[in-house]
């Protein structure tokens, strides 16, 4: 498959960002925002900070909408997703297989584009901050700068930082990972007083709020021993607990009706969603012949989960039809007896075995045989078009209406915050079994756990938060990212916990040093 073929035009601008916007000495067009505001060591403020802020929100949303860059690095590198080559489809010169097997190089396209996008966003936020905006815009710009720098720190460790009055002849200084941690923390703490609360059910959960800032603070404190080195500190774990308590005080909580959380209606779960078209979350997994309203090209037949990840959920390991006794979060597949027009014939969660149309007839593959999605993937290449369990978390049926391309991709939600608090308590020596079971009791057919260890908690985070951008972050924190899983051999190389600095960045900024192992 040609990865460009199926990208909608809204994603196109991502791939024309050549050079290292905001962090390199590469020659960039004069129309680039970084060059146009920095001339002869001076800085021309942006004309309309509020408008620039809105543009930045849209830019970040586009960065997270694509199936490449942020999503691929966060999920395809883990035990949750695999993009097997089926015939010639999804071969793409091995770019997807490299992510799964952890054999990427500093020249990997997705890694380079993620680096470019995040650095550009940090610089654009700095431009807004230094343009004397009003207090509300200033707070949101600081939040967005912290948000993008967080992912740079998490993915790459060290972070280049260019001041807005530095021209392209200046090599940006480089923050160590610990310095980047302090920078992110400082921006978030400075932003908090100027942000709206972000109570559930309000329109501003798509922008920066106190709830969103506290969520991101909880993330950095929970991972502080990864970013700063050393052992887990109780003081930082207490900061996680305090940040989550502040979110709960605003009215957020665990929502029942698991898959309804991912609709565009208001709920008590959603803390921060991105202005991201969720089409790629729907179509990248679905077979070509599965019902695809609003998408005349059909499904893209790419992304699958691993059998072992699917087996981590309760229920019949070989079936996922309605009434099989599976836990709610694993979802269900409609069959001939319960097909309905409203649901388009599509299930929720993990799609396995025979697939059906909305009228109850069996779907067929492209050769005319029954479309039976197989559980096991035996190889990275040479797979049949129906091999692999598919995942559909964002459904085209959005609360009873077809809304396949809605811009509502959830990145922060309360159940994640709840589990972060539980983990912080566990790392302080407390028994968190009842707290984890509180979440499970909100998910139907999900029995209580008898005890919660680190491995059990990691598995629970996977069951609750799959394909929500957090699996790599979790695996690194639990020291499992370099462990073996299906079709990936054990590496045990801790250097792989960081991605490489792209080659072009090293060539353009001599202050950068390649991460160990690359």
From TrEMBL:
Q: Listed GO cellular component terms?
A: cell outer membrane
Q: Which residues form a coiled coil?
A: none
* Places the protein is found: Cell outer membrane
Q: Does the keyword Signal apply?
A: yes
| RagB/SusD domain boundaries | 268-518
> What keywords appear on the UniProt entry?
Cell outer membrane, Membrane, Signal
Tell me which residues make up the SusD-like N-terminal domain.
90-222
Transmembrane is among the record's keywords:
no
What the record says about family reads: Belongs to the SusD family.
Q: What is this protein called?
A: Starch-binding associating with outer membrane
